[in-house]
Amino acid sequence: MTTIFPAIDLYGGKAVRLRGGSYSDVTVYGDPVDTAKIFADAGAEWVHVVDLNGAENSGDNFDIIEKIASRTALKVQSGGGVRSERRAEELFSAGAERVVIGTICATDPRLTNELLGRFGDRIVCGLDVKDGKVAIRGWKESAGIAPEELGKTLKAAGAKYFLFTDVSRDGMLTGANVKATAALQQKLGACVIASGGVAGQEDIRAIADAGIYGAIIGKAYYEHKIDIKEALDYVRS
After folding, report:
1. pTM tops 0.90, yes or no
2. I want to staple 169 with a disulfide (CB 3.0 to 4.6 A). Which of 25, 74, 144, 196 is the partner?
3. Is 128 a catalytic residue?
4. Catalytic position from the list 51, 60, 128, 203
5. Where are the beta strands (DSSP E) in 87-166?
6. What are the tens digits of pLDDT across the range 210-228?
């Protein structure tokens, strides 16, 4: 069964969305804890939380993550700027069930292996892809490696969960890249979460029907193009 991950991007303590990952194109949606409660009331088990301040080295939103974890029954999967063991520890201490790592997967194999060795399947390896290669450092640079190649290395190091983001589709509501996500999951033989471009219920149906492990729902929810309960009902049926 496909797992639905409604998403909350945090910036300055508020729920926001970036268009195409650009900090110059930000839409503010309000209180993140209230949003998380809506997801929980709809029947979601997980929430995907991205700390955008952490990602750009401008602080953190640990207090908000802690409130989401303590005031709802949601399991929190969170990332954003995890470039050290301490940062991962702080996210876990704030209540995260899983921590997402991104850039270091391609740039710091020693730290990545340490995190996977210590936390096991509580670590999710992010594979952000732009023009067929893994994108790093806020999608501003290319690691020059294909996602399946890096993914196989990470799996050998113990990774069980992957987050595949098609950067060109993120926040654009142009449809999820179901074909590439399903192909990556098959090549890795691991659990892959589809991220970027989910535009409506048809994307959720396609992701679920392809047998993909998970789906991130972000902007489509905030723009009232998808109902979380409806998405949950489909994957559970």
Report:
1. yes
2. 196
3. yes
4. 128
5. 96-101, 123-130, 133-136, 141-142, 161-166
6. 999 999 999 999 999 999 9
